[in-house]
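Posting this for the archive.
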Amino acid sequence: MNPSTMRPFPISVVAMGPGSQGEDAPDYLPLPQMQTFAAPSLPDDVAPEAVTAASALLGNLLARLEKLGFTGGVGLDLLAQPPAVREVINQSLGFGEVSAFTTAPRHWRVQETAFAGLWRVLEVADDGRFLVDRLETGSIPPVLGEAMTQTAARELAAPAYPEGCMNAPPLVEEIRLQASAWQPGEAGHVINLTLLPVSDADLDTLYGWLGHREVSILSRGYGNCRITSTRLHNVWWVQYFNSMDTLILNSIEIVDMPEVALAAAEDFADSLERLREYLDMLSEPV
């Protein structure tokens, strides 16, 4: 099977934690649950030569990561690898807390691996072929921020305000001002709509004006946080949902990338140690 015709790398939303147990579960208010690291595992019938080849690839990657560090921009092209080797790497790296996709101008699929700061990045053609399949290091793959930059406007005219609006006009002006003034390296400006007196008309106006656009990110670190780009440059919807999929915090962030989506340097250091231990386990005789 040609690796360029394999099915797209899955980025799925899976019900986890309290509230996903079914009808026979006790009736109580679900608590948020922090996701913790779980070591990946390989299927029993994997070919030994595929494990050896994948271990060599990941071992070379680990050596480069240890030398160049978190911001070294280390990458590993997987597109030319045999399907069996790619499958071992799929199983070896597992799934982390953050996944994302873009709908324009290109179709990117991004999945954080079980090793924080190490990302699987794929570009998928309209016919389902892989155009890019690589591993990247860093706080988050740049393709997501680039998609926001390429699809959002630098300026956005104020909307019409229907009857029933209370705070939409000042909020729109605050968003426009902060978006035009924000500079790279500055802290994000957060507008917490959950804590503000806003009417349904206010929210409808903001949703219609900003929209939900071409970049979508899901972080499952503590509950579910859904992040979507908007029509306005560096303006993001950041919404937190509990395990019952109820919106509990609704905010707008003006920043290049919301912090909740980013891997931290200290987590990356832990990832290197875990990856080293995992490769040692793969090298042990069965």
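Helices lie at 48-68, 83-93, 142-151, 168-181, 200-210, 265-283. The chain has six helices and ten strands.
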